[in-house]
Amino acid sequence: MNKSILVISNTYFQLIVAIQLKETCWFNDKVDIVITDQSNNSEKVAKNLSKLQIFNKVIWRKTKNLCQNTSNIYLNIKKYKYICFGITDIKIIQNFYDELVYYNPDIYTYGIFSKLKKNNSNLHVCRFEEGILSYTDSVYLENSKLKHSNIIRKLFKKTLLDEETNNFYCFYPEMYFGNMNPIEIHKIKDYKIMGDNLKKIFNLNDDMLHIKEKYIFFTGVFDFEGGSPIGEFELVLKVAGLVGKENLIVKTHPRDNRTVYAENGLKVYKHSYIPWEAIQFNNDFSEKVLLTVNSGSILGANLILENKAQSYFLFNCCNIENNYEASRYMKTVRQLLSAAAPVLDKINIVENIDSLAQIGN
After folding, report:
1. DSSP string, 156-177
2. Domains plus CATH for the chain?
């Protein structure tokens, strides 16, 4: 029996996952998707997505301000009203849905859930992944963000979003150890099909997407956030010295406004605002080497493709002891790679500076 499904997408990775679900698990189902303004240029993206007719209906909504924390008493009362009684989004709630799928348990999601549950007491509520690091945070039943919302709904004898969320769509069900039922999403076999869709969605051309260099270094924020600088810039220079500047390109973090890499003769990717997934799905990276200290980019598109690029985490080559966020991130990645060694066979940790010379060989 065909289902009617509503997906709420706040990020472009979530959008890519939704597209892959529609092309595989939901191939015969009627799927509507909400694209929110929690990503840059999302209104334009929603219009482009609608033209492709992948989904039955594409709905763009402003939810960023609603979902942000605020000390305004009036706005907080309004939020709790939405949680308890729902959001009257006519274009959505006038429809009957069999299934609601989301990642972020925010005010908008809760408000839509409240209305849809009222329309259909048998509504199935599911979560989908946002990268493999979300597999641990998907055990979010004790999430403090839901605590007060749940207390209020209980007072009104209403069902709770977290208790109603029973399924978890993910690419690696064997790596999920939470309380929900994991449902496998098929990995992307032909990256060109997804790549072509993303080119149209984000208005990209071949020149913007082409990367000829073998080595791609994704910089992070820990030289200027989270504590003391970790020496990432100096590490990039060492890598360039080993592999040759002509063979390396640096993709800077969106929050990094510095020009130190270009000033030191390194090639910097000019279109860092483009979602990395759009770049990787438009290139054959099977012979490329992805390098990073902490960027999640090498754990994003790389893990939903059948043919992964060789990838390395280099945080052991930096001074992370005095940077709390960097240390915490390192611990999480180590645990993940240790638990998922058979699955993540092409993603490794470089243990020390001396072993840097072996990268890509």
Report:
1. TT---HHHHEEEEEES-GGG--
2. 4-186 (3.40.50), 192-354 (3.40.50)
